[in-house]
Design a protein that fits this description.
It is built from nine helices and no strands. The chain is mostly helical and 211 residues long. InterPro entries: Med31_sf, Mediator_Med31.
Length: 211
Amino acid sequence: MASGKESDDVQTPSMPKNIYKDPDDGRQRFLLELEFVQCLANPTYIHYLAQNRYFEDEAFIGYLKYLQYWQRPEYVKFIMYPHCLFFLELLQNSNFRNAMAHPGSKEIAHRQQFFFWKNYRNNRLKHILPRPLPEPVAAPPAPIPPPAPLPATNVPVAASPAPVLVPVPAPAAPPASALSPMPYGLPPGPTLSKNDPRNSGIDRRKRKKEG
């Protein structure tokens, strides 16, 4: 009977009846974790955590591992500062956590982050914008090949035709002198025209003698 009582007294632990449930279906928890994760995008805030020895607490390191679910596609769409995910991944390394306790490491991280933001747009445009096509270069004209020699055959080659001589016209003769206005039957020698005053004087003398 004693053994029976002992077995009755020893009971298996039962699950708690009242399971905690967020009154707002986890909305407040979601917003708090989202805010904390995005604070990790600031190297100065990480330096603050290291200076206050948060990274020496195992529970806090486990919390950082738990927050890696924000890298999943269904949660990453709510992230406005994607650098926080990069630093969250680095915080999983103990060497990085220890280095961020020094102000010099904080300044280096902040400077590199600034350079990334400064050149981010230009670096993106290099891969997004289409590059112009190279201009075609005009090729130099190909040299004209010399004519191929005729093949040697036993067929006689026809003689080239003789050159044709074109007669050159003789220069035109000068025009003949104009014919004399005198009739052809008169003898050569000087003659006096009818209107010559000497002829008129001779006629008058003849008329006197006759009269």
